[in-house]
């Protein structure tokens, strides 16, 4: 069984990838399957692809319930870099 946890989009690259941050940290994901994603949006990621966008209030509620149940850790600390010139893979 797979448990999908909402992740927040931190940065979007021109090549259709994004840096997403969830309770377990940051990772690079693909936005190829979901249109209209913006920095600050919450998404569900499956196999490295964003597949659903969530309202912020809904995502925060889900994250709080998962933390309460012990199924998700506290939010990962934000990367110290606010912006970057690197290209996401």
Helix and strand arrangement:
Layout lengths: L6 E6 L4 E6 L2 E6 L11 E5 L2 E6 L1 H13 L21
Antiparallel strand pairs: 1-2, 1-4, 2-3, 4-5
Number of strands: 5
State the helical fraction: 10-25%
The order of strands across the largest sheet is: 3-2-1-4-5
Mass-distribution shape: globular
The secondary structure category is: alpha+beta
What name is given to the CATH topology of the domain at 7-68? SH3 type barrels
Would you write up a description of this structure?
- The protein is an alpha+beta fold and 89 residues long.
- The protein has a domain at 7-68: SH3 type barrels (Roll).
- It has one helix spanning 56-68, and strands spanning 7-12, 17-22, 25-30, 42-46, 49-54.
- Strands 3-2-1-4-5 form a 5-stranded antiparallel beta sheet.
- The termini are far apart.
